[in-house]
Each structure stands twice: as C-alpha cells, then as structure tokens.
C-alpha cells in the first residue's frame, strides 16, 4: 500500500458497530487515510485495538485504523485536513444541544476552512431520516466553507457487544449520493467515496442517484414499523403475531402508516410503488429482529424520533396531507421520549406540583 499520509483523509465520527465496520472497510480498501473518533472505549482501543468478528472480513484481534482520537476537538487540533467527515452517530435533534450533528462536526469544518484555502470538505451523513442535511446548511454557508453534504443509507447488522468488541453478522450494503442532485462536485465526491469504500466480494457500495427517493423509501419501514416496535417494546414478529386475529398490526397500523408516507412523498413528486408496502411488512416477518428505536427505548437511550417521524409530519402539514396513524404514533412516542429525556436529565418534572418544569437544558 502507498504512503497513507498522501491518501485522501477520512474521519469517522461514531465508534459503534456501524462506525467501526465503516472505518474497517475504508482501511481494508487501502485507498484512504482513516481516522476514528472514539469516546468511551478510547483508552482500551488506543492500547489494544478492536477485537472484530465480521461476516465480511473475518476475524481481527488488535485492529486500529491509521489514527484514533478521543474527541472531535482532538482531531481538529491534529493539523490534518479531512476530505471526508463521516457521521455514523444517532441523529437526535431533541437531545442535548452539544450532540446536534452540526455542533459535533463544527470543530472539523472550522479547522478545514482554516487549513484548506478553498479545498472541498465533504460531510457524509450515514444516518436515518429525512431533511437531516438542513441543520448543517443552516449553520454553514456552503460556498464560504466549500462544503458538500452527502447521504449514506446503510443496511448492516453490526453491534458493539462489549468495550472494544464488534460483532458484524449482516452484510454491509451502503448507498451514497448527493443531497443536491444538481451539484456536480457533490456527485463526484459521492462517487469517489463509493470507490474508497467498496471491497469487491466483501461489502456492497453503490452510488445513489436519487437520495430523496431512497430516504422516503426507507421511511416506509422506519416511520411505521420501527416506531411501533419502540412503543410496544416488541420485536417485529411478535408485533405482527400478537395483533387481533394476527392481522390488526399489519392491516390497521403498519400498512395505513406506510400509505401515509406514500402520500406525503407524492407531494414532493417522489412516487413510491404500493408493492413496497408489502415488501417492508414481509421483510422482517420471520426474523427475530428489534429495530433501532425499540432497542434504544429498551436501553433508556433517546430515540431518533424527530428525523424519522417528526420531519415527515412537518412536510405533511405543510403540504396538506392527512396523517392520522403517523400522528398518533408520533404523539405517543413524544411522551415516551419525554420519559427518556427526564431520565437523561434533559427534562425536570416537579411531582409536588404535578407539572413539567422548564427544560433544564436549552435544546
């Protein structure tokens, strides 16, 4: 492999199951210089590396990318210009203010702006949801910062099962595209990332020609099924089987919610075929699978509620689409999220008055 210091520099933020395998994929290809921001496991990984069991790449005992950093701030002070800033953390706008994606990446973008002298910075959001790019555009002027924001939609089964231990059981499939379909620089950056990431015979990485369509399509599953499982605390098969006559969950929750997503997307001229509804209902019917929001809820962690459900409902309201099922799911999940926010110190409830005190943290 050539001198890694001369290769495109990529930094991955988020060292969970997805982020670590993402960094491994880039490192394995050998065409980029790979950095990883690690928080809780930094000391262990810096000393011993990761123990990885991967269905794509096999076994690793002491693996590390080219560089590891404890914080984004440490990385921004390294004197390096990062061509790609890859974000694999959960996107939770109603979480702590400092955890907002735009604030997390700000030190790196500011440092790139200082070092780059007109060089292009590419932010790749490998996250769920719709309209997640707008937060970044609202904070950074794309021309001033020479900034492209790219979309990454990933299907993978990978989990951090212990500190410094990653278990990947599901093949990595990634599509990368430009949120701005007319931006040639962003399109070229997305295609370049696919080249840097794709390992023939190992993972699958492709260019996404229509990011908006792909994100609405994934919302068919996430906005209907991911949300429902989080509310009831059950895997998908049990959600389906425990319904009235083993049908009501599918016929009265999943499918109507998905039809509402189809209707919202149609107001943006994104046409989702009705056959996708059946496809997504069936895809995990016979797999013992708990979607991400359900897992987060069980762990007492904040859910990606706003980007998966809140943002589509804002679009529906603006475009005059009726959403009785999605709205009910959302309103119930806002209450459930409130319990998680209280547990995490973001809300305070005065039991002596039986009412909510002003948020303890500005969000």
TrEMBL record:
One of its GO terms (cellular component) is cytoplasm. InterPro entries: 6-PGluconate_DH-like_C_sf, 6PGD_dom2, ApbA, KPA_reductase, KPR-Related, KPR_N, NAD(P)-bd_dom_sf. The chain crosses the membrane at residues 7-28. Belongs to the ketopantoate reductase family. One of its GO terms (biological process) is pantothenate biosynthetic process. Residues 210-333 form the Ketopantoate reductase C-terminal domain. One of its GO terms (molecular function) is 2-dehydropantoate 2-reductase activity. It comes from the Eukaryota. It comes from Zygosaccharomyces mellis. This is Ketopantoate reductase. Gene3D superfamilies: N-(1-d-carboxylethyl)-l-norvaline Dehydrogenase, domain 2, NAD(P)-binding Rossmann-like Domain. Keywords: Membrane, NADP, Oxidoreductase, Transmembrane, Transmembrane helix. Residues 10-180 form the Ketopantoate reductase N-terminal domain.
